[in-house]
Design a protein that fits this description.
4-stranded parallel β-sheet; 2 domains; alpha/beta
Length: about 200
Amino acid sequence: MPDNDIERLIQSLAKLPGLGPRSARRAVLHLLKHRESQLQPLSRALDAAADNIQTCSTCGNLDTHDPCAVCTDVKRDDTLICVVEDVADLWALQRTPAYRGRFHVLGGTLSALDGIGPDDLNIPSLLTRARNEVVIEVILATNATVDGQTTAHYIAERLTDCGVKVSGLAHGVPVGGELDYLDEGTLSAALKARHDI
């Protein structure tokens, strides 16, 4: 158990993804040296986030409003829903101008080992949204892991009665990737998804 505020702060930061105890210690030292310009604004931002950030009841995104800014954006294409595992995946896809449709966050993947079944994910609301006559296509953008692909397959089966096209992201060689650096699974996926040139 930490015996002072500095140790508590270090241990709290060390729990964040990408930060271990050494990185957390350096971050805390930096924040303490710059209290007025960085520590105090960070503290206020964290308090505001804790008080104001909520989960969008439509898509599952995080925002200060419900529905979120993505769901209320009138410039987005209502005929497309891109299904992702987590909010981080939504944010990643939102950065690219290639996709301008709607999103749906599952909140994870099916995992028998972890005891996560269909009722633990945001699947029922997806099926309700997919039955909307405006929706034409549902894009399953789950990760290329066993759990991600199992989840995509399960959802694809549930969507067969909704009358929508179901598609998935292409898998294979990344742009700028070199073949000798890729694993066998990626190369296999790339070969199976080959196309005419």
